Task: inverse folding
C-alpha cells in the first residue's frame, strides 16, 4: 500500500509554436520542483485544431485498423444511441473529418448520465468481420453487448449480450470498456449510487471487471468464478495500459479527491471507506489525486511514456508522468478552461493526441461548433 500522496515534481516550459500560435503555459499549482529522477514522455505542442465538430453528447472515441489496414474511427453519442464513423473530409482543412451515422445501438434508454457509453472493437481473426462492443444503459440495467460489423461500414444483424444485470442509476454508471494486451475485455462499473456495493464482493458494481470476449470468467481472475478484477471504486471511467502492460485507471471522487490508480489484480481501492489517500491497511492508495473541481476524470490513454486524462468539471487535459521506480506520478495541467468539459482522449495519427469535448451533455456551456474532437500535436517532454 502506498503510504503517502505523490507530490507534483515536474516543471515544464511553454510549448513550442505551431502555425504562429503559442500554447499558454500549463496551470501548475502548487508550483512543482524539478524531479530527482529522470522522467521521459511527451507534452502538447502548439494550439489544438478541429478534427470534427457538431457532435452531440459524445462519450467514447476509438480507432482501430480496418480490414484494408486503414484506420477506422468510431464515436458513441450518449443520448441518441448512435455510433458515428468518421471519414476524411474532402473539403475541410487538412486532417479534418466528416461524421456519418454507422448505426443505432439497440436497447438504449438514455437518462441522466446513462445511455450509450463506452465502445471497444475486436477483429475476428482471419476474416474481414469484427465485433463492436458497447456499454449501454437499458430500461432495466447497465450491460455490455456486441454487434457484428460487416466489413468496416455497417452493423450486421444479431446483437449478442456479453454481460447484463449491472445496477444502473441516474449517475455513477461507469461505462468504459477496453481490450487489454492479454486479449481480455475490461469494464469500469460505477456504484450506481449505492456506495456499499463497492465493498461487496458479490456485487459487480463499484468494480473493474475482467472477462473473456464472450463474457465468461477467465481462469486466472483474482477470485475463481468472479468477474471482479478490483473493487472499492466509486465511478471509474478511465482505463489505459502502459508500455509494460500494467493497467491504470481514473476515478471520480465524491466531494474531496479524484484518483489515478495503479490497478492490482484483487486490489481494494477503498470506496466508500477511503476517498483519496487514506493510508489505511487493506486499501490501495492512488498514485495521484486532485480536488474534484480540478478533474472529474473520464477518458484515459497512454502515448509514448505519458498518460493523458480528460477532465470534465476540471475542464483541462492532464498529462501524467509516472516513475514507478521512484514511486512518483506527476500530473501537469494543459488548456485549463480553453475547451470546456473533456470526456475522452485517444491516440491520434502520427503520434498526436485526440481529445473530445463534452459540452452538450446538459452540464456544460456549449461553444460554437461543440461538441468536437481536437487534435493536439505532441513533442518530446521538456524539463525545466
Result:
Amino acid at each position: 500500500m502506498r503510504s503517502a500522496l505523490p507530490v507534483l515534481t515536474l516543471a515544464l516550459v511553454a510549448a513550442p509554436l505551431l502555425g504562429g500560435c503559442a500554447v499558454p503555459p500549463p496551470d501548475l499549482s502548487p508550483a512543482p520542483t524539478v524531479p530527482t529522477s529522470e522522467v521521459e514522455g511527451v507534452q502538447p505542442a502548439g494550439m489544438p485544431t478541429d478534427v470534427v465538430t457538431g457532435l452531440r453528447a459524445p462519450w467514447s472515441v476509438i480507432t482501430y485498423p480496418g480490414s484494408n489496414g486503414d484506420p477506422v474511427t468510431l464515436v458513441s453519442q450518449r443520448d441518441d444511441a448512435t455510433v458515428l464513423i468518421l471519414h476524411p473530409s474532402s473539403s475541410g482543412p487538412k486532417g479534418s473529418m466528416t461524421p456519418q451515422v454507422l448505426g443505432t445501438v439497440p436497447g438504449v434508454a438514455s437518462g441522466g448520465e446513462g445511455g450509450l457509453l463506452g465502445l471497444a472493437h475486436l477483429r475476428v481473426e482471419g476474416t474481414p468481420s469484427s465485433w463492436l462492443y458497447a456499454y449501454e444503459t437499458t430500461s432495466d440495467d447497465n450491460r455490455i453487448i456486441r454487434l457484428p460489423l460487416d466489413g468496416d461500414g455497417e452493423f450486421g444483424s444479431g446483437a449478442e449480450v456479453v454481460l447484463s444485470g449491472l445496477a444502473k442509476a441516474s449517475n455513477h454508471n461507469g461505462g468504459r470498456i477496453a481490450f487489454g494486451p492479454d486479449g481480455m475485455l475490461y469494464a469500469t462499473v460505477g456504484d450506481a449510487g449505492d456506495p456499499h456495493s463497492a465493498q461487496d464482493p458479490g456485487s459487480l458494481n463499484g468494480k473493474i471487471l475482467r472477462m473473456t470476449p464472450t463474457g465468461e470468467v477467465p481462469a486466472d481472475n483474482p477470485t475463481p468464478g468472479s468477474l471482479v478484477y478490483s473493487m472499492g471504486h466509486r465511478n471509474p471511467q478511465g482505463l489505459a495500459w502502459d508500455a509494460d502492460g500494467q493497467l491504470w485507471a481514473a476515478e471520480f471522487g465524491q466531494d474531496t479527491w479524484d484518483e489515478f490508480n495503479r490497478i492490482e489484480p484483487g486490489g481494494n481501492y477503498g470506496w466508500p471507506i477511503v476517498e483519496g489517500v487514506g493510508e489505511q491497511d487493506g486499501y490501495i492508495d492512488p498514485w495521484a489525486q486532485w480536488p474534484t473541481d480540478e478533474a472529474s476524470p473520464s477518458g484515459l490513454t497512454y502515448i509514448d511514456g505519458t498518460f493523458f486524462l480528460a477532465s470534465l468539471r476540471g475542464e483541462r487535459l492532464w498529462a501524467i508522468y509516472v516513475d514507478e521506480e521512484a514511486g512518483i506520478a506527476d500530473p501537469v495541467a494543459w488548456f485549463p478552461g480553453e475547451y470546456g468539459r473533456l470526456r475522452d482522449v485517444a491516440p491520434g495519427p502520427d503520434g498526436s493526441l485526440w481529445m473530445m469535448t463534452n459540452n452538450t451533455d446538459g452540464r456544460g456551456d456549449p461553444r460554437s461548433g461543440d461538441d468536437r474532437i481536437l487534435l493536439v500535436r505532441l513533442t518530446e517532454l521538456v524539463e525545466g
Residues 56-318 form a domain with the Neuraminidase fold (CATH 2.120.10.30). The chain has a mean pLDDT of 89.
